[in-house]
Amino acid sequence: MRHSASPSSAVPAPAASSGARGATRVRRERIVAMVQSGETAVESLSAMLAVSPSTIRRDLAELRRDGRITRTYGGALLTGHGHETTVDERDGQAWEQKHAIARRALELVADGDTVFLDGGTTVGQLVPGLTSFRNLTVITNSLTELPTLMEAPFTVIFLGGELRRPSQSTVGPLSEEALRRVSADHAFLGADGIVAGRGICEADLTQTIIKESMSRNALRTHVLADSSKLGNAPFTAWAVLSGGYTLITDDGATAEQLRPFDQDAGVEVVIVPAGPAKRPAGLST
Predict the structure, then answer these.
(1) pLDDT at residue 212 above 60?
(2) What is the band of 38 on the pLDDT scale with cuts at 50, 70, 90?
(3) How far apart are CA 70 and CA 133, in angstroms?
(4) Using CA atoms, how far apart are residues 152 and 109, in angstroms rounded to an integer?
(5) Which of the residues 19, 52, 93, 184 has an alpha carbon 20 to 30 A from that of 227?
(6) CA atoms of 193 and 208, how far apart (whole Å)
């Protein structure tokens, strides 16, 4: 005789299964977010999510099958890492925030200083303000700022090397050797992303070496990063700033974004208001 299940005995099983599936979906979304922020190791993900490493490995396998991550030895990366926008594409993005950050950074410079200027659009906004000084030495690998710096009344040292077209800057052994022979009062560094406890995230290892060299040879290091960069790890190359640094960012940063930096003893956080600022003519939004 065929028996049909009563409603009271049939309903709980699907409900429990649905709840488990929901918890798995939530956990996997958290994994994607954590990998995006730079947490890529199975053991770290396991500890932070309070589940076993084998559960994490199963989740990573499913996310890989869905095309959302790429598995690596001992961890994972987001699928699609490596898309790098050009300087021209980034120039109009978060312009008010970058302008406010650069204006605050400019207050740290005094006549007689030597400064390292990294490539990038945020650091680049420092340059017009620097031209009001009479007695500076500016050392840079950024091609985009040379036309303005050429008109300045102070000493400009351009680091030679291999041209990186996306960032319009120089990298490689020649740049690295030049940096070994100079020092500065300040290093102003940009970032594609920055994660507390890890450092600056960049598209290419050659860029990270330049940033580390500038930081190592400067008395003070300042990372200029708008709030969209905080906790963001869009690529897989890292510059480790072992000597500590000042992070200058805008007031769009959330408490959650700022908390890891506030808890890092080696980081001083400076937050600036990003009010309306007049854009240069022709700059896209």
Answers:
(1) yes
(2) low
(3) 49
(4) 15
(5) 184
(6) 12
* DSSP secondary structure string for all residues of 55-89: HHHHHHHHHHHTTSEEEETTEEEETTTT----HHH
**In DSSP terms, which residues pair with 170 in a beta bridge?**
163
Both tokens assigned to 26: 């939530």
In a domain, 285, yes or no: no
What tokens does 145 get? 């700022």
Q: Is 176 helix (H, G, I), strand (E, B) or coil?
A: helix
Which letter, b or e, does each residue of 170-189 get, where b requires 16 or more Cβ atoms within 10 Å of its Cβ?
bbbeebbebbeebebbbbbb
Question: Based on the domain organization, do 264 and 166 belong to the same domain?
Answer: yes
Q: Are residues 184 and 209 in the same domain?
A: yes
> Per-residue pLDDT tens for 79-128?
555 456 656 556 667 889 999 999 999 999 999 999 999 998 999 999 99
The pLDDT value given to residue 199: 95
* Residue range(s) defining the domain that contains residue 58: 10-78
Give the amino acid at 218: A
User: For residue 163, what pLDDT is reported?
Assistant: 94
Q: Can you give the CATH number for the domain in which 55 is found?
A: 1.10.10.10
68 and 105 housed in the same domain: no
Please check the confidence at residue 154 and state whether its pLDDT lies above 80. Answer: yes
Largest CA distance in the chain: 99
Dihedral (CA of 151, 154, 160, 163) sign = negative
* Neighbour count for residue 32 (Cβ, 10 Å): 17
For range 186-200, the mean pLDDT? 95
- Is there a single domain that holds both residue 184 and residue 62? no
pLDDT at 3: 35
Q: Output the CA–CA distances (angstroms, integers) from residue 23 to 16, 19, 28, 32, 166, in the order listed.
A: 11, 6, 9, 14, 41
Per DSSP bridges, beta strands 218-224 and 245-250 are parallel
